[in-house]
Write a structure and sequence with these properties.
It contains four helices and 17 strands. By secondary structure, it is of the alpha+beta class. The N terminus is likely disordered. The radius of gyration is 30 Å and the shape is elongated. The strands form two sheets. It has a 15-stranded mixed beta sheet that branches. It has a two-stranded antiparallel sheet with strand order 8-9.
């Protein structure tokens, strides 16, 4: 009995330390709640309550816990974006420049043809989030006013559950125009791209319910479990909340069935091209003439195309309460 009492005291000390870890995260401006840590705390409490005499000699560091989330259903509402409207960046990006020198006494026609790429970036940074070991994805539906300028890029953007994510796409721009150059004139042509940037906030509800299953085994024999433990995730969270009021971001909602709800929040930064235009500047080649620069500009929107292959994935204040199922990998 003395050994068992000492083991329980040791387990309680370690559980308290782990509890402090996710408490400290909540004290900062950003909040990350690790669901695995919460579940593991509950599992160790159950282990101490229910272990038999034959299991009481195992030390905590000898044991391995494997949590299975397969029977827990996660869903989310549509993400809401807030912030100032997209800002038109003041300086155009010059993708290509070329010169045409007409040294003859007759007007000449030149072909201005090129294809270039810019990179559209969509960055999602979580400030208040849940995390868990089992991989799954959340969905961001980009605002309509942004999608219309990024034709070809999917409105639904998937990120790893609670993971900061940067998604980048190639955007292709092309021009194929005839340029008329006056006699004894030098003309240079530029392909310029105008860009917009949206810097705002996002939020959406995560809701989940179901049963957690877990096995406790030794590190030496991880495939031979000593104990199988299962429980209702809603009741597990309810028990934790009764003892830790700092996790008040989690709440129990009395739906059918009851579920745990949490508001994911974060920052987003989108940057993307919106239009292309060609700028022409000309200057006399005659040294006797005074130098002049005569810029003209024309839109070339019909020849802009988009290549929306993903290059890299690093994962309003009123909520839409229609939930959609979150995919698990």
């Amino acid at each position: 009995m003395g050994n068992q009492h000492n083991t329980e005291q040791s387990s309680m000390r370690k559980t308290t330390l782990k509890n402090e870890r996710y408490r400290e995260r909540s004290d900062n401006q950003n909040e990350m709640i690790d669901l695995d840590e919460i579940v593991e705390q509950w599992i160790w409490n159950m282990w101490n309550r229910t272990k038999t005499k034959s299991l009481s000699h195992y030390k905590r560091e000898e044991l391995l816990v494997k949590v299975n989330w397969k029977q827990v259903m996660f869903s989310q509402t549509k993400a809401n974006f807030s912030g100032s409207p997209p800002v038109h960046l003041p300086k155009s990006q010059i993708l290509f420049r070329t010169h045409f020198n007409n040294k003859t006494m007759m007007e000449q026609s030149y072909l201005f043809k090129t294809e270039r790429f810019t990179r559209s970036t969509f960055k999602f940074t979580f400030t208040h989030c849940l995390q868990k070991s089992q991989k799954s994805a959340v969905i961001f539906c980009l605002p309509e006013e942004i999608v219309r300028f990024t034709g070809g890029i999917q409105r639904e953007q998937y990120t790893d559950f609670g993971q900061d994510t940067i998604k980048e796409y190639n955007m292709r721009w092309s021009v194929n125009s005839q340029i008329l150059v006056a006699p004894r004139t030098s003309t240079y042509a530029e392909l310029n791209i105008d860009e917009e940037e949206f810097n705002g906030d996002f939020s959406f509800f995560i809701q989940f319910f179901g049963r957690i299953t877990a096995t406790v085994s030794t590190h030496e024999s991880p495939n031979n479990y000593l104990k199988f433990i299962e429980g209702d995730i809603v009741e597990i969270i309810r028990e934790i909340l009764e003892n830790d009021h700092r996790l008040n971001g989690l709440e129990i909602v009395s739906d059918h069935p009851s579920a745990v709800r949490y508001t994911m929040r974060g920052k987003c930064l989108f940057r993307y091209g919106i239009q292309q235009h060609v700028v022409l500047n000309q200057q006399s080649l005659d040294s006797s003439s005074s130098s002049s620069s005569l810029p003209t500009e024309k839109k070339v929107s019909s020849s802009s195309t988009i290549d929306h292959r993903s290059l890299r994935s690093q994962s309003s204040s009123v909520h839409n309460n229609i939930y959609q199922h979150i995919r698990d990998d």
